[in-house]
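User: My instructor asked us to take a sequence, write out its structure as tokens, and then describe one feature of it. I'm not sure where to start. Here is the sequence I was given:
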Amino acid sequence: MAQLWGGRFTKQTDQMVYDFNASVLFDRRLYRQDIEGSMAHVKMLAKQGILTQEECGRILEGLSGILEDVESGALPITSEYEDIHSFVEANLISRIGEAGKKLHTGRSRNDQVALDMRMYVREQVKETDSLLFGLLQVLQRIMEENLDTFMPGFTHLQKAQPVTLAHHVGAYFEMFRRDRSRMRDIYHRMNYCPLGAGALAGTTYPLDRDYTAQLLGFEGPTRNSMDSVSDRDYVIEYLSALATVMMHLSRFSEEIIIWNSNEYGFVELDDAFSTGSSIMPQKKNPDIAELVRGKTGRVYGALMAMLTTMKGLPLAYNKDMQEDKEGTFDAIDTVNACLRLFAGMADTMKVNRAAMEASARNGFTNATDVADYLVNHGVPFRDAHGISGRLVLRCLAEGKALDDLSLEEFQEESAAFGPDIYEAISMKTCVEKRLTLGAPGQKMMRRALEENREYLAQTPGGRM
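Assistant: Let's start with the prediction itself. The structure tokens for your sequence are:
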């Protein structure tokens, strides 16, 4: 058992207690952050005269060697160590001797783990942002290629009014763009360094916390030592943002699953992003979309677990906070994998434009435009609404679309109808005359696409 404590104890920790208490099997992914934080700490100690330059040089050389060996696989991180901190310090002492015992001067595991987790989450926020950026690029391409791909827009899963695929996908572009703005907010709010807070009350050593923060790329040190070691707000904020990302992915996945069905046939997923059935040879299943939808609950669970862990903790550090890692690591891995796979699935799916437009026509999505036509020809709206509804009822009985009715059939309901009704209720007209900001008309959509291009050019992924 490699432990950083023990002088006050007269007997060995029970093995079951040790195993239950240990975290090395999951916090070992923090090895690089732990080593980089230690290197910055040692440089600061030397700058302040707490360590000699010679001691600093030996410790830095030892830490660099450990980092290199871990990354090459020459030095495995095993369960004989309690946590990643004891692994690094024990190996450092083994390699350089007495100087290694000075690594922990002016530092506690409390501010050390707070630093490691903050540095790790900071990096992962940038990674998630980069993946969101990649997905937005895919959505932008789909939008640019489908400005005139007409399809039904839905409310209550009922066909409502005609839109374009560009406009529909544009709604998701806005969602994922907001997700990126959350990543940026989280990054800047969390980017302060807790190192130097000690266990909870700082230290008597003359540490330069501003210098350490500068070395590690933080905007500055945290302001209160008790808050520094007990704060996990940034983890909760990140998990909340990840849960929102998954909610957006899940909504889009649900639509793709519906669109990919035989009944709709709006899209066809690429073979590389589909699976078959062990018994039914005709099947081509949208498993990636279904798994993304399913894994959303897993990420929600990580958020709820973290909120529940933190809700009753008194200041300052408590061992409960060790539970901040496993769920968070799993949520990060899940979301980042889902973003990669979803982007690939969306990028390779084929769009059936004819099926989309036929669905819009046969779903009476232009019924509102029939009413608007009558209003523009002097018919009061409430009367126009009733006339349009009766025409829809007639079409349902006869298996027709509104466009299929003859002019005589239109005029049986209202003499206000003229030959121009067909142009007025064509899918193209129905969409094109909607020119308010945010609407699906081409003028507004081209403006939106240009703004998207400017946004993507100015905010590349991972740049905070």
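For the description part of your assignment, you could build on this observation: Residues 113-147+165-194+224-352 form a domain with the Fumarase C; Chain A, domain 2 fold (CATH 1.20.200.10). Try explaining in your own words what that tells you about the chain.
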